[in-house]
Amino acid sequence: FLPGVFLIFFVIRFWDGLKKYRRVKASLEGINAASSGMVISAAVLMFLPLEPNYINFGITIGTFLILTFTKLPSPILIIIGLLAGILI
Q1: For residue 63, with 0-12 CB atoms within 10 Å meaning exposed, 13-18 middle and 19 or more buried, which class applies?
Q2: What is the C-alpha R_g of the chain?
Q3: Which among 64, 74, 67 is positioned nearest to 43, based on CA atoms?
Q4: How far apart are CA 65 and CA 38, in angstroms?
Q5: What is the tally of helices (H) and strands (E) in the chain?
Q6: Alpha-carbon separation of residue 18 from 11, 61, 84 (angstroms)
Q7: Interatomic CA distance for residues 62 and 44, integer angstroms
């Protein structure tokens, strides 16, 4: 979380001025691609320990679709999953 905190507290003050530079704009595209790859990698690493069956795959895809196409906050979805895991 430290890089994000640094960005919020220190860089945000002069961020609009930085975005005008060509190198900064180009580096942001690389940072965006790298962070997207890291999120996908984390998702795959979290899915690997699960038993490969249709239920686990369906829950994963269903959770993704709920987060993508509804306005349900992710903490609520986590609590619902936690309660469903306890009940099942």
Answers
A1: middle
A2: 18
A3: 64
A4: 20
A5: 5, 0
A6: 9, 38, 46
A7: 16
Amino acid at the residue 1: F
**H-type alpha helices, 48-73:** 54-69
Crossing angle of helices 54-69 and 74-87, rounded to 10°: 150
The answer to whether 57 and 51 have CB atoms below 8 angstroms apart is no
Q: Which of 80, 49, 45, 87 is nearest to 62 (CA)?
A: 80
66 close to 77: Cβ distance less than 8 angstroms: yes
pTM of the model: 0.54
Coil/strand/helix, residue 44: helix
Which amino acid, 54? Y
* pLDDT tens figures, 26-78: 888 888 889 889 989 998 898 888 888 888 888 888 888 998 999 899 899 98
Structure tokens at 45: 């690493």
